[in-house]
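ARCHIVE CARD
Drawer: 12
Card no.: 0347
Subject: one protein chain, sequence and derived structure
Cross-reference: see card 0346
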Amino acid sequence: MSSLNIKFLGMELSSPFWIASGAYQTFGSVIENWVDELVENHWSGIVTKSYLGTTPLQAWPSCYLWTTPFYRSMMMQNIGPPPVPLKKSEVRGLKKSTKRCHENRIVVIGNIIGRTTSEWITMAEMMEEAGCDAIELNFGCPASPIKGHPTLQERYENFLEVIEAVKGHVDVPVLSKINAQILDRVKMAKDCKRAGSDAITAINTVGGIIGIDVDTGVPICSDTHQVGVMSGLSGPLIKPIGLRVVAEIASNVDIPICGVGGISHWRDAVEYIMVGASVIQVCTAVMWKGFSVGKRMYEGLQKFMRDKGYQNVSEIRGISLPYFAREPVPMKRKPHAYIDQALCSRCGACHVACREGAFDAIRRIRGTYKVNQRVCDGCGLCRVVCPQGAMEIKAI
């Protein structure tokens, strides 16, 4: 039987699946209400919603999640629910949650954003006091800066000092959560490790604007008072970005990685593991589909491993990375496009794309489309636009 048990930073986990920081259900003091569902659906850990300091915020958008008909089920803009301040009462509630989680073999990771180094330290100590198994330092949230809180750039500028300071005051592992929008993610991961970080969480949401209502000019990402919000994008469309960042770090830095970003299916989890992730964090898919998505991913991953003959998750971790390290091979035969006429629907998408976006190598001849091999460059554009999967690129 294939086992999904893993070890991560000294923690014994029953699966690689954690719920990521972000939804209301990840506030520390309410996590205890969801433990039965977490167990039933094979979640081995949960990361708290980011705590932004120890005092309440004065204001927060009255609507904080948005999408459009085009992006629905693919992506949403997300700033998250109004943060709960990390006061003593919240620490007491979080302590009850961690106790209940630990009784059910679930780990709790405390996610924090401080305004000053001393506040980062204070919050980390409070999270450890509450029983958190690790601290996740959130350096990567791309939301507009809140009054009194550091911008994304300011957090990047101070992250070394923060990691070193927090590591000097807590005994639990420390994870650094980074954003894809920092230009040199490998350097940041190396610096995080040098400063004492035990692992990297990659990625956070990706900064963006979901759209503008062209009839009124009002941003779609506005609250009920038409206050426009700049924050992060989440959902399946950011998965390719997350995969690249995890692969970059895993290829260059010997540090454990939590992969997060656009994961909603067991195949997504497998892809993240294959580029080097040890733990998989899921947020948006849980918000859209509920805790049961964890059970579907768990069962899907287990069946995949059984069918492929893998005994444990470590056997597939990082197996895709060597392919990215290869040098281009000199072409002995030039690749060309070929059309499977049995699959071709005669829609003409390849013809238009090749004529106006590539090499004008596809011709319409008596109602069918054929490739002029002397002109074709093998670029693959026809394969990208073909809705039937009728195009192949082969070197014959």
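Annotation on reverse: The domain at 6-323 is CATH 3.20.20.70 (TIM Barrel). The two ends are 42 Å apart (CA to CA).
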